[in-house]
Amino acid sequence: MELIVGRKKTGKTTYILNKMKQIRKDNLKSKIYMLVPEQFSNTYERILTEELSDGTLVNAEVITFSRLGQIILNDSKYRKVNFIDNTARKIIVKDIIKDLDFKILKKDKEQIDILALALSDFKTYGIRPEEILEKIKNKSEDEIETLKLKMEDFSKIYNEYDKYLSTEYIDEADMLKLIFEEVKEKDFFNDSYIFVEGFSSFSKNQFNILTEISKNIKDIYFTFRSTDVYEEVAEYDLDIFKNVKTTIRKVWMMLNELYPNKVEYIYLDNTYEFSDELRILEKSYISSLNSNQLKYTEEEKQILNKDPKDIKYLAFKIVENEIEYIALDIIKRIKKDNLNQKDILLISNSLSEDANKIKNIFNKYGLNTNLVEEKNILGNIYIEYILNILKFICFKNTEDLLAILKLDILKKQLDCKDTDIALLERYTTKWYISGYKWNIEWKFDQKNDDYQRVIDFKNKILKYCNNLEKQLEVQKNGKEKVIELYKHLEEINILKEVLDNIKSKDKDLEKDYYAVINLLNDNLDKIAYIYKDRELSIEDFLISLEESFKDTSLKNIPNNLNAIDVTDIFNIPQNKKIIYIMSSDESVFPPKPNNINIISEEEKEILRKNDIEFLKTELETFVD
């Protein structure tokens, strides 16, 4: 049983990989699991794939807590249960809060996001709002009073949400609780070796699962990124690893209780993969966060005062020149330092604007790229059509209609030309036609030669939209509305229209469209089963779709093991030897973490003083 602690690049991952190889030699049939956070699973899959090339880690598998759920719950009584994810959670929250009265919480769209996230956090950490109320009921400070009102409101949502789920649905945030129940009953990891890597803390449920797993395994190893637990930090200094150290001590106590005198603490201090410049900067960076001062020894000052070898700053006026320089420099470094393309990382602070330029210029020089990004699907033609046609049916906003007409996918259905669309746009703009004006007679410009053509086109549009509205209105519940929408999409054959235009032109785009169809089907299925026995108006159907699409993105899966990873600041892979950062002067870089919750930073501190610690502060999120 080992706890391996060290700062960045001190060899923690190398240490445990060597341990795994040794285990394979000594215990050929033993199963090895590497438990990592969700966001790092691809990185560690790639690391193990590379290590697998010599056949030493055949029985090693990367798992996350969600994969753990799939492994364990698929063989349990919960295998047929529908799990509610964040998209479905937001749809349910929107429905619940309509009938509730609040003292302080709001019911707007932004609040729905915050409330859905709060439900997930409370369930993940195994905390109920009533527990917080119980802890602070006898306190009387102003901040406490606000927190009390929030928790009273939130407890109504929490309890209604639990009723909504019933036995047919389970929130995915409750999955950890179910895993814990199953792990207690069955020996899933009997005689296995577990390596826990990449975590800075564990929720209550995660810790309970790890405790149960630790009872039946052969050996377990934890790694943590931190300074030495035994390092003395002055009271007035801010130790950014304070909470990691709390986790380390907690794990230490748990393992010692299970295996007295068999737990080893190993601190790795040598940042052997850093050059002198990077090693000094890393050390001073940690020091500055802790004490707000940069501290260098005389020897370190001398190293930093020399011409830099491993850190370069360059300025470019044109982004294409910046990318061109990077491509040529990569080719030079690959030859000079005997590197592979997979050893190199390119981070862009404006990836959505730079991605295609990077891909095209790198292709020109024979460089492979893996784009590590998430694409929002709201700009997809298929999704735009669905949302805008429903918006026009609900609100008769001319802009929504024109957005559909300009997609070119309704020309066959409406038997219209570009000139018809141009005339309609000119007429509606000139006479400020939108909203209720679509339902009245248009009498402006009757003497104009194109007047009748505009009116005929208007009537075609209204007939088309009214037919769809009738189809959806007849069906009362959400499941029937989803079925009618599917029928409509099949009738107009929108997917064929879109794919015919892009086939053989852009294989990546074609692949994206098929992925979007799968995501759309998933989201419509969620709405169908949430509202299968409940009435759903067309407007609420639209809102539910908007909420589900807002949370949905296309994730690129790296398909080339020897390629340069191109990513943004939020999806950085590990274990790279050279890093290029583009457009670092645009806006704030790195950006401040989005750490919105119904509980403020001040209230988190109040809860911690009352022994309730379950939400990370902005600083902790930034350090992660």
Topology summary:
Elements: E1 2-6, H1 12-26, E2 32-35, H2 41-52, E3 60-63, H3 65-73, E4 82-84, H4 86-97, H5 109-124, H6 129-136, H7 142-165, E5 169-171, H8 175-185, E6 193-196, H9 204-214, E7 219-225, H10 242-258, E8 264-268, H11 276-291, H12 298-305, H13 319-337, E9 344-348, H14 351-364, E10 369-372, E11 374-376, H15 381-395, H16 398-405, H17 411-414, H18 418-430, H19 451-474, H20 478-492, H21 494-502, H22 507-530, H23 538-550, E12 553-555, E13 564-567, E14 578-582, H24 601-609, H25 618-623
Parallel strand pairs: 1-7, 1-8, 2-3, 2-6, 4-5, 6-7, 9-13, 9-14, 10-13
Antiparallel strand pairs: 11-12
Helix pairs in contact: 3-8, 4-5, 4-7, 4-22, 4-23, 6-7, 8-9, 13-14, 15-16, 15-23, 18-19, 19-20, 20-22, 22-23
Question: Could you list the spans in which at least 5 consecutive residues all have pLDDT below 50?
Answer: none
Q: What is the radius of gyration?
A: 29 Å
Cα-to-Cα separation, first versus last residue: 25 Å
Shape descriptor reads globular
- Given the structure, what is the number of helices? 25
- The strands making up the biggest β-sheet line up spatially as 3-2-6-7-1-8
Mean pLDDT: 81
What percent of the residues sit in helical stretches (DSSP H or I)?
40-55%
Number of strands: 14
Strand proportion, as a percent range, falls in: 5-15%
| Main structural class | alpha/beta
Biggest sheet record: 6 strands, parallel
Notable characteristics:
single chain; 624 residues; alpha/beta
